[in-house]
Specification:
CATH superfamily of the largest domain: NAD(P)-binding Rossmann-like Domain
Number of strands: 15
Distance between the termini: 36 Å
Largest sheet: 8 strands, mixed
Number of domains: 2
Shape: globular
Strand order of the largest sheet: 1-4-3-2-5-6-7-12
Radius of gyration: 20 Å
């Protein structure tokens, strides 16, 4: 795909009303759920924000002041056109296909895209490169999952999906670049994130939607224990990490407070007072881990950070957002 620039306004500076923008940041995958919230936070700090994605922003995630580029990260040639014209202070990589059933696209977007970025940026003077990895890089390692001290190639045998393998290869690529070029990267291994403006292809929005519609809807037994982090807490840590001296580290990003899935579904049902989850209709996968959650002591120690929003407070905020959207 050729690079196309979506100039929403004649002047982003005039639109924002800023006399001077302190930092310039590029968010790969900036039109997605997490990208939107990070971009919004950076705009509030009066930074110049560029988004690179294969898709235009949806109406609910469009931000005045962001300069949007259309580009496939797996195309190094097209990425060069953007990075040769722009010197960024910070780069955050959130790019990658959401539909992991498309193996080739998943591999190209999550690994080849990251490798292209490293090749383009490894000798440039960027202040920080943030990679959003996944807890699935741990494979079947028991919870609470702890970050490795070195590269994680030894866990590759335990990984079964193209997505998790692609993310792990991206992590190893970044660690190698750090060791060879002192590349200023941080890899966050992300657990389940939720909050306003998330698409209806994730557990919490799906349950909220079905409850508001008064549906009887199938679920698993809900006995899985998972870690859910509210989007504002995630954004707080990622933005805080940009100006830190930390680099070359793999860091878990979650709430550190695991919750049973059934408890979350029942809370949403009770809060909305509509809909009926049919527990146990969807069978658990034979290889599904019942407990997946992180040790987040490293994030707390390195960044003097801790999550502020409890799961039930976050659910209330999220439900309120979708309720307001439904009433429009």
């Amino acid at each position: 795909m050729d690079v196309k620039t979506l100039l929403i306004h004649k002047s982003n500076l005039i639109c924002l009303g800023f006399k001077k923008l302190n930092y310039k940041i590029c968010i790969l995958g900036g039109t997605g759920f997490i990208g939107y919230h990070i971009a919004k936070k950076c705009l509030s700090k009066k930074w110049s924000v560029h988004s690179v994605s294969i898709n235009k922003p949806k109406k609910l995630r469009f931000l005045n002041g962001v300069r949007y580029f259309l580009c496939d990260v797996s195309s190094k040639k097209n990425l060069e056109k953007i990075f040769n014209k722009n010197n960024y202070d910070y780069v955050i990589n959130l790019s990658g296909y959401v539909d992991h059933s498309k193996s080739k696209l998943t591999y190209k977007s999550h690994y080849i895209g990251c490798r292209n970025l490293v090749d383009l940026l490894k000798t440039r003077k960027i202040k920080k490169f943030i990679q959003l990895g996944t807890s699935l890089e741990y494979g079947s390692i028991k919870s609470p999952q702890q970050e490795p001290k070195v590269t994680t190639k030894d866990t590759k045998k335990k990984l079964k999906s193209v997505y998790s393998n692609s993310k792990l290869k991206a992590t190893n690529c970044l660690v190698k670049a750090y060791k060879k070029y002192n590349f200023p990267c941080i890899i966050f291994r992300l657990y389940l994130t939720y909050g306003p403006r998330q698409d209806f292809n994730r557990l919490i929005p799906i349950v909220i939607k079905n409850c508001f519609e008064g549906n009887n809807f199938p679920t698993s037994s809900g006995n899985q224990i998972r870690d859910f982090i509210y989007i504002d807490d995630l954004v707080d840590l990622v933005v805080k990490s940009l100006k830190s001296k930390i680099k070359g580290e793999i860091i878990n990003l979650g709430s550190g407070k695991p919750t049973k899935v059934k408890k979350i579904i029942k809370f949403i049902e009770s809060a909305i007072n509509k809909g009926k989850p049919l527990f146990g209709v969807i069978e658990l996968r034979k290889d599904e881990q019942l407990k997946i959650y992180p040790n987040i002591s490293k994030a707390k120690q390195f960044f003097n950070w801790k999550p502020k929003i409890s799961i039930f407070e976050g659910l209330k905020k999220t439900i309120k957002y979708y309720k307001n959207e439904n009433s429009r």
